Amino acid sequence: MAVQLTDLETGQGEENRNLLFTCNWILAIGERDEGRGISESFGFTTCYKTAAYDWIGHIYFRRRAPRFNLPMEGLDLYLEPGRMPLASTKPAKVRIGYTVYMTDEFREVLHHEPLTDTYVAPSVFGLVECYKAPTGRFKEKLAEFLGSRLRGTWRFVVTMELAFSTKSFLSGPEIFSNNLHAQPDDISNDFRFAFKKNPDFHLICSDGQVTASKLGLFLATEYFRELFLLQMELKINSTDHDLRQFRRLTVTTLVDYLMSNTIKENMVMAVEEVSELMQVVELLKPVRKDELRYYMHKLLINRLKQVAETRIEDVVKILLVANRCNFAQLKIMCYASVVNMHYEAFKTRYRIDAPEPEDREVFGQLQATRAFTFQSPLEFIDKLRLKAYKVSLAFA
């Protein structure tokens, strides 16, 4: 399983169609105290292929109650992006409507307000941009509802509809830096690679050694800066360093990046090799590690798009690397891929009593990881599955 560094763009052939997500929110406001008003929230997830986005619907209804010194009567009904670790993608259109039913059997309709377009405005607390619904008639119905003796049986159902283009939904937010350069084919006269001609330091790997510049390593990494300063105090003049836990290809890739800020575009790396490279990065602590992390993050996202629909074992392997390296967007894409395309196979294959020892080992790794969400991937996938169940998907 390998990744071609030259192919980093969104997959081709994506149909130019719209995704239409619809969610019904049943308001649990049957026996509210008339003076308190209403304050409710509802979370759900729009999920398709390798993309998942959290959303939260809010309703705030304030009654006119001078004796309690509460604010003037008003209603806010809006939808805002949820608490995903990354900024959500913007929908092309958001519409909100509601229906009032006589009982919780949801058969006899008292009133129906069709879906209407929302407008963009700051949320009630002014923290994020949200999609607000016109609420004039809705406020009248809520006031009538709270003043009725039958309010214990009435049910309000708010319907929220979000439309996206498939391409923008799957692309997600662009978070990657483009400061890396391609390594030239001929480096013989390139000053950035002068250290290869007259190296004064060697890194010993499991399958060979890598030449480097001692000054370059001192300037480019926190690890070697601290090491060389300590050796200077102890009057030790070393010419090599032991990195036998890593392979030569991995260390060479990192050293070339540290010295020249370039990456070989025609190099093919397996997912395991990307994971090993990030382990070296965490050990040596490069001064410029963010660009390399972004590049490898995007590299694995491209690989996930290639295998997401067909190979659950590859998706899980990428998920483990994403958790180890804390690649936030990649983790969400892996979760979405499992939920949307492989959930049953995932739950059947990866469990504590799986017949294959490799699957039991993977289950243990998934269960032990709790970075970023304070939940294991197993718990987060189940949670995402339940939130996605609240939403129906159609193609327009």
UniProtKB/TrEMBL annotation:
Record-linked Gene3D superfamilies: Potassium Channel Kv1.1, Chain A (3.30.710.10)
Protein's UniProt name: (pine wood nematode) hypothetical protein
Gene source species: Bursaphelenchus xylophilus
